[in-house]
Design a protein that fits this description.
Order of helices and strands: HEEHEHEHHHEHHHHH
Strand order of the largest sheet: 1-2-5-3-4
CATH class: Alpha Beta
Shape: globular
Structural class: alpha/beta
CATH topology: Protein-Tyrosine Phosphatase, Chain A
Largest sheet: 5 strands, mixed
Number of strands: 5
Radius of gyration: 17 Å
Distance between the termini: 28 Å
């Protein structure tokens, strides 16, 4: 675990206020709610080459919270904010099998099966995005983590990198829960032993999903063109700024 911890620290992104922000590859990043960013954090993100922010949340999740920092309109005006909700919270099978939200890689395959058009729309948005891209959900763990795994699969990442990416996201939001004012209703803070046990089981499920995945085939089957796939690959291979 020491090697993974060191690598995780190296891939962490430090934009002021950002929670669970990580570099995926090239010009692509992931994180939790963008509303956690401060004015300085938005500027730091811009300085890193980010020009597009893709929000994977549903409309009802996009409400501000009292504890969010006040951010000027100028701070966000230079970014294109693209809304690409990856799920329908009213879908009966989703609520029965995965609800109240996606929180385990064991359910990623079901999620892809339930919402292929919505996931394909995210990749179309990535392909069309100017500059670097941040993909974010609420916690920065599973919806953004699923997109990250699909991107890593497209780039040819190995098992270690894929597992590291998920473990980073899970550790990152767990650390956020350590300091949160009130315990999370569904994801309480976990002490190290409990966290390690959960990481171990979820990493197995994650690799089962990753080994069954062919992102390029999925994208082609769901209306993403060869030109768009090439554009995504170019963003994955571009050097991070």
């Amino acid at each position: 675990m020491d090697g993974i911890s060191t690598a995780a620290k190296q891939r962490g992104v430090h934009w002021d206020g950002a929670v669970n922000a990580w570099h995926i590859a090239g010009g692509l990043y992931r994180m939790g709610r963008r509303e956690w960013l401060t004015d300085l954090g938005w500027q730091q993100m811009y300085d890193a080459g980010i020009r597009t922010v893709i929000d994977l949340r549903t409309l009802r999740e996009q409400q501000p919270r009292e504890v969010d920092p006040e951010v000027s309109a100028d701070a966000t005006a230079r970014f294109e904010i693209v809304h690409c909700p990856t799920e329908d919270p009213e879908d009966k099978e989703f609520t029965e099998r995965l609800g109240p939200y996606l929180k385990d890689p064991a359910h990623y395959a079901d999620y892809v099966r339930l919402f292929p058009d919505r996931l394909a729309a995210v990749f179309k948005a990535i392909a069309a995005a100017p500059g670097g891209v941040v993909v974010h959900c609420a916690a920065g763990r599973d919806r953004s983590g699923l997109i990250a795994v699909m991107l890593q699969n497209l780039s040819g990442a190995g098992d270690e990198e894929i597992v590291r990416g998920y473990q980073q996201g899970m550790r990152g939001i767990n650390e956020r829960h350590r300091h949160h004012r009130a315990p999370h209703a569904h994801d309480p803070f976990l002490e190290e032993d409990a966290l390690e046990a959960l990481l171990a089981s979820r990493s197995v499920s994650l690799l089962e999903f990753a080994h069954s995945l062919d992102t390029s085939t999925f994208l082609r089957a769901n209306g993403v063109s060869e030109a768009e796939i090439s554009a995504i690959r170019a963003k994955l291979n571009a050097p991070a700024r």
